[in-house]
Specification:
The complex is a heterodimer. Chain A is about 40% helix and about 20% strand. Chain A is built from ten helices and nine strands. The longest helix of chain A is centred in the last third of the chain and has 29 residues. The N and C termini of chain A lie far apart (about 100 Å). The N terminus of chain A is likely disordered. By secondary structure, chain B is α/β, with parallel strands linked by helices. Chain B is built from 20 helices and ten strands. Chain B is elongated, with a radius of gyration of 33 Å. The chains are: A alpha+beta, B alpha/beta.
C-alpha cells in the first residue's frame, strides 16, 4: 500500500528554531557590545580613579602623578617599619593592596603608561623610603601566562634606603620618568648581584658589595659621526672573602671569569627577554679587571651563538676591544 | 481532508507541555548567558577583554566535551532505557484517504462510522455519550490494517502516533510500562491541543496476550506492560483525555486478554478479512494500473486464481511479475509472468532435479491422474496449472483453486478432494504397474479427510453422528487417562472411514480406466512440455470432447 506526505505534522523545530536563533543572536550581540565597551579607568580620570580605588578598597590615602609615560604613586603610611626597620606585616598588606590597585588601573585604561613606581614612606621616619618599579608590559604578560611568576618577580625593581632622592623637602613628591634603557640596566645589575650571590661556586668566596647599572643614551655620548642608541655600563663591586693574599692571587682570575660569565648571561637573558636592541655595546667594570671590559652588541651576539668563547674575549684582540677601540666606543 | 486544528486557548499550555524540557534547557542557557554577561560587565576592562578573548576556545572545548559525551551516551547507553523516541510519531507518514482504501469495503464502512464518531465528539459529549476509546483491527497479515488506521487518522483530522507493540518489550523489567506511560503522555498532550489523538499500536498481541500468573509470585514483563496499557486506556487517571487507541493484530481474538477487549478499552472491533473475488479484481486493477501490462490479461481469471490472497500478496505478485518481465527483457507484463509470479510465491522457485525417464513418466501419470479427476469430478475447483518440474520438496504439482472463496465444504467437495488425492496412486498403478512413495502426502490428505467425515462431521453412511474425537483419550488438546469410546465403536468408525476411501478409490479407478486415452495424452504432454497452463489444459479437454462450460470473467480495464 502506498505511502504519502503529511497532512499533519507538529514540527516543533519550526516553532523552536526562531526562538533559539533569536535568543542566541541577542546574547551574542550583547556580548559583542560588551566587548566593545570602553576602558574602566579612562585616561582623563586615571589618577583620581586610582586615588579613589585605594581609598575605597584599602583605606589608604595616596598621591598620584604622571610623569611622561610613568605613573608614580606615593603611599605615606603609619608604622610601615618596625623599630628594626623591617616591613610591618599589617601595613605591608595595605601596601600590597595599593600595588594591586595600581596594576588594575594601569591595565584597564585606554592610555596606559609604560611604568609605574610605587613609593612608600613611613610617616614617622622621614627619609627612609621603599620604591617599587614595574614595567606594565610585564604585568600584562604575567596575566596572559606568558611569564612565570619567578621571572616576573625578577623583573620588578625593588629599592629600600635612605634618601632615594624622591622628596624635595618634607612632603614634596617628585619623581623622574622611568625609561626602558635605565630600567633594564638597573634590572640587569640587580640580577647579576643575585646570580653571583646565589651561585654555589662563588657565594662562599666572593661578596658583591654593590652592582650598579647605567644606560647612557646615545644623545648623551657627545657628537659622533654615526647615529647611536647608547650603551650599558655595569660596575660590579666585589671582593674576595676568607682567603689569604696567596689564595686571593691564585683565584682572582678564576673569579673574574665567573663574574664575567654570570654578567654576560644575565645581560643576554634580559635584553633578549625584552627584545631590546636599542644599544650599541656593553661595558663591565670589576675590581679584578685592569681595564673596562667593553663589547659591542654584535660581539655579544657572537658570544651568544657560541662562536667565540670567553677566553678569546678576555684576550686583547679584535673582539675584546683594544683600549683604543674601547676608548672610541666609550666616547661614542 | 480536514486538517488538525488546535483548540482555542490551549496553544500556549500545549506548547509548554510538549516542550517543557526544551523550554527549561533554553531558559537555563539564557539565564546562564545573562549571568555571564552580568559577570563580565562587572569585570575591569582588561580582565573582561581577556575573558572574551578566551571565550571562543572555551566554547570550542565545551563543544568537543559535549560531543564526546553525546557520542558516549548514544553508543554506550542507547537512547536511554525508557525513551520512546521521535520515530514513534509518524504524523509525517499519514496521508491515506478513503478513496485509497480498496478491497475491504465492510471494514471501511465500519471505520468511517468510527471517524464520524470522532468528528462528532463534541455533540456526543453533549448528549452524555463517550467517544470510542479503542478500536481493534483484527485480520490476517497483509490485509491493510495499518493502512486502514492511517486512513482513519487522515479522515478524522487529528494527530496520529504510531508504535509497534514489540517496541515496548525490553529485557529490563518496568521499561515497557514506562514506555506505555510516556506514549500515552504524548498522546494526551496532543489530545489536549487538538481535541483528540489517535494512538496506533501495531502487532498488539506482542503485549496483549492473555496474561499468565505464576503460583510462585511475580509477573512477566509483558504482564506489567499490559497492565499499564489497561490502566492508561481506562483506569484511574487524573484527567479524561480523548485518546483513541487503535490496535492491530494478526492473532485470533481469543489470544488477546479479555481485559483488553471489554467495553471502555477496545470496545469496537473491525474484522479485516481477505478480499473476495470482486475486491481482488479491484486490487489487481489498482496495482496493474501502476505497471505496464498486456491488455489481453484476464483480470477476472487472475482474481479467481488468487483466491485467499491478501492485498499485500497481490501487490507482491505484481511486483514479482514485473521482475520476471524485466528479466525476460519485455516492456509489458503478460499473463504468463503473473502466473509464474504466483507460482513462485506459492510453490517456490523451480528447481530442476535430474530424474530418470521412469521416474519422470511415473510423475507425469501421477499428476495427470490428479488433473483429470480434478477437472472432471471436482464440483468447486479449477485447474490452473499442471507441472512435473520440481519445486522445494515436491516433484510435481497440479495447481488448483476454488472458483469462489468458500468458507464451508460440503460432502461432495470433501469426497472430490479425496478422489483427487487418490487419483495419483490409481494412475501410477494403472500405467506403471507399481506405486511410489510420492503418494504419501496424498494418502495423508485423503485419510485425514475421510476420517474427519466419519469421526467428526457425520458424513458416513452407517448412521454415526457426532464428534467422536471428543470421546477419545486425546480431546480438547489434552491427553486424558479415560477413553470413552469402546474398541468396537472405534473399529466401526475406522471401517466406515476405510469404506469411504475404498468407494472413492473405486470411482477413480473407473473414471481413469474410462479416460485412459486422456491420461496418456496429458502424461505425454507433460513429459514433452513439463508444464501445462490453464488454456492448454482446457484445449486438450476440449479436443477430447470433455470441456466444461466456460467461466465468465470481468474484462480487463481499458
Amino acid at each position: 500500500m502506498r505511502q504519502g506526505s503529511a497532512p499533519y505534522h507538529f514540527d516543533s523545530s519550526s516553532f523552536m528554531n526562531p526562538v533559539i536563533n533569536q535568543c542566541f543572536f541577542l546574547t551574542s550581540l550583547f556580548a559583542l557590545c560588551l566587548s566593545g565597551c570602553g576602558p574602566t579607568y579612562p585616561k582623563e580620570t586615571l589618577t583620581s580613579s586610582l586615588v579613589a580605588l585605594c581609598q575605597k578598597e584599602y583605606g589608604v590615602e595616596v598621591s598620584v602623578q604622571i610623569v611622561g609615560k610613568t605613573l608614580a604613586v606615593y603611599v605615606p603610611l603609619e608604622k610601615l617599619f618596625d623599630s628594626t626597620l623591617r616591613l610591618s606585616p599589617e601595613v605591608g598588606e595595605k601596601l600590597d593592596g595599593v600595588i594591586l590597585a595600581t596594576s588594575r588601573v594601569v591595565l584597564s585604561t585606554d592610555n596606559p603608561p609604560d611604568f609605574y613606581v610605587v613609593v612608600a614612606r613611613d610617616k614617622r621616619i622621614p627619609g627612609v623610603e621603599l620604591k617599587l618599579i614595574r614595567y606594565i608590559q610585564d604585568i600584562r604578560r604575567l596575566n596572559y601566562g606568558d611569564l612565570s611568576r619567578s621571572e616576573y618577580t625578577k623583573r620588578m625593581l625593588f629599592e629600600f634606603g635612605l634618601g632615594l632622592g624622591i622628596f624635595q623637602g618634607e612632603e614634596h613628591f617628585h619623581i623622574e620618568e622611568v625609561r626602558l634603557g635605565q630600567f633594564l640596566a638597573d634590572q640587569i645589575a640587580q640580577r647579576i648581584k643575585t646570580r653571583i650571590e646565589e651561585d654555589p661556586e662563588t657565594k662562599k668566596e666572593v661578596r658583591v658589595k654593590a652592582a650598579r647599572g647605567k644606560f647612557i643614551p646615545g644623545d648623551s655620548l657627545g657628537p659622533s659621526e654615526e647615529a647611536s642608541w647608547g650603551r650599558f655600563t655595569f660596575v660590579i663591586d666585589a671582593e674576595m672573602e676568607g682567603l689569604d693574599l696567596w689564595e686571593t692571587l691564585q683565584h682572582e682570575k678564576e673569579h673574574e671569569k665567573k663574574i664575567l660569565v654570570a654578567s654576560l648571561e644575565v645581560i643576554l637573558e634580559v635584553v633578549r627577554g625584552y627584545r631590546f636592541a636599542s644599544f650599541d655595546g656593553v661595558e663591565i667594570k670589576t675590581p679584578f679587571l685592569k681595564h673596562s671590559f667593553v663589547l659591542s652588541r654584535e660581539v655579544l651576539e657572537l658570544y651568544r651563538h657560541k662562536k667565540i668563547d670567553l677566553s678569546t674575549l678576555l684576550l686583547p684582540n679584535d673582539f675584546n676591544l683594544s683600549p683604543h677601540d674601547a676608548e672610541l666606543l666609550l666616547k661614542k | 481532508m480536514p486538517k488538525p486544528t488546535v483548540i482555542k486557548g490551549h496553544r500556549m499550555r500545549m506548547f509548554f507541555l510538549m516542550h517543557r524540557l526544551k523550554i527549561i534547557i533554553i531558559t537555563s542557557i539564557v539565564a546562564l548567558i545573562l549571568l555571564s554577561i552580568w559577570g563580565l560587565s562587572s569585570l575591569e576592562s582588561f580582565y573582561r577583554n581577556m575573558t572574551l578573548a578566551q571565550l571562543p576556545i572555551s566554547v570550542l572545548l565545551s563543544g568537543i566535551s559535549a560531543a564526546v559525551f553525546v557520542f558516549m551516551y548514544l553508543f554506550g547507553f542507547g537512547r536511554g532505557l525508557a525513551n520512546v523516541g521521535r520515530s514513534t510519531i509518524k504524523g509525517a507518514m499519514v496521508d491515506v484517504k478513503w478513496s485509497d482504501v480498496i478491497g475491504m469495503e465492510e471494514a471501511k464502512q465500519e471505520a468511517m462510522e468510527v471517524v464520524q464518531l470522532v468528528r462528532d465528539r463534541a455533540r456526543l459529549k453533549k448528549i452524555g455519550g463517550k467517544i470510542v476509546r479503542g478500536l481493534l483491527l483484527i485480520g490476517p497479515p497483509g490485509c491493510g490494517k495499518t493502512y486502514l488506521a492511517k486512513a482513519i487518522a487522515t479522515e478524522a483530522g487529528i494527530p496520529f502516533i504510531s508504535m509497534a507493540a514489540s517496541e515496548f518489550n525490553e529485557i529490563f523489567v518496568g521499561v515497557g510500562a514506562s514506555r506505555v506511560r510516556k506514549l500515552f503522555g504524548k498522546a494526551r498532550t496532543h489530545a489536549y491541543g487538538y481535541g483528540a489523538c489517535i494512538l496506533f499500536i501495531d502487532e498488539l498481541d506482542a503485549i496483549g496476550r492473555t496474561r499468565t500468573f505464576s503460583f510462585l509470585g511475580g509477573s512477566q514483563e509483558t504482564n506489567t506492560t499490559q497492565n499499564q496499557l489497561l490502566v492508561e486506556m481506562d483506569g484511574l487517571n487524573e484527567k479524561d483525555a480523548n485518546v483513541i487507541v487503535i490496535g492491530a493484530s494478526n492473532a485470533e481474538e481469543s489470544v488477546l486478554d479479555v481485559a483488553l477487549l471489554r467495553p471502555g478499552r477496545f470496545d469496537r472491533k473491525i474484522y479485516i478479512d481477505r478480499p473476495n473475488l470482486e475486491e481482488r479484481e479491484k486490487i489487481f486493477q489498482y496495482y496493474l494500473g501502476k505497471v505496464k501490462y498486456e491488455p489481453s490479461i484476464d483480470v477476472g481469471r487472475l482474481a479467481r486464481k488468487a483466491v485467499y490472497k491478501s492485498p499485500a500478496d497481490i501487490e507482491n505478485i505484481i511486483k514479482e511479475a514485473a521482475l520476471i518481465a524485466t528479466r525476460k527483457e519485455r516492456e509489458t507484463i503478460g499473463y504468463k509472468d503473473l502466473s509464474e509470479a504466483m507460482e513462485r510465491i506459492d510453490m517456490g522457485l523451480k528447481h530442476k532435479r535430474h530424474m530418470t525417464e521412469t521416474e519422470r513418466r511415473m510423475i507425469a501419470y501421477h499428476e495427470s491422474g490428479h488433473l483429470i479427476v480434478l477437472y472432471l469430478l471436482h464440483p468447486t475447483d479449477d485447474v490452473f496449472k499442471a507441472s512435473i518440474i520440481s519445486r522445494r520438496d515436491t516433484l510435481g504439482v497440479v495447481y488448483h483453486q476454488p472458483r469462489e472463496e468458500l468458507h464451508t465444504s460440503n460432502r461432495d467437495r470433501i469426497l472430490a478432494n479425496i478422489k483427487v488425492a487418490l487419483a495419483g496412486y490409481v494412475a501410477e498403478k494403472f500405467k506403471c504397474g507399481t506405486t511410489s512413495d510420492g503418494v504419501a502426502s496424498d494418502f495423508r490428505n485423503a485419510t485425514a479427510q475421510a476420517s474427519s467425515m466419519v469421526w467428526q462431521l457425520g458424513m458416513g453412511e452407517d448412521g454415526f453422528l457426532g464428534d467422536y474425537t471428543l470421546l477419545t483419550s486425546f480431546r480438547m488438546g489434552r491427553e486424558l487417562t479415560t477413553d470413552l469410546l469402546s474398541d468396537q465403536l472405534k473399529h466401526e468408525l475406522n471401517m466406515e472411514t476405510n469404506r469411504i476411501l475404498q468407494a472413492c478409490l473405486k470411482e477413480v479407478e473407473i473414471l481413469l480406466k474410462k479416460e485412459d486415452a486422456l491420461l496418456d495424452r496429458f502424461a505425454s504432454e507433460l513429459l514433452k512440455k513439463e508444464e501445462l497452463e490453464y488454456d492448454e489444459i482446457e484445449t486438450i479437454f476440449a479436443e477430447c470432447g470433455k470441456a466444461r462450460p466456460p467461466i465468465i470473467s470481468t474484462p480487463p480495464p481499458s
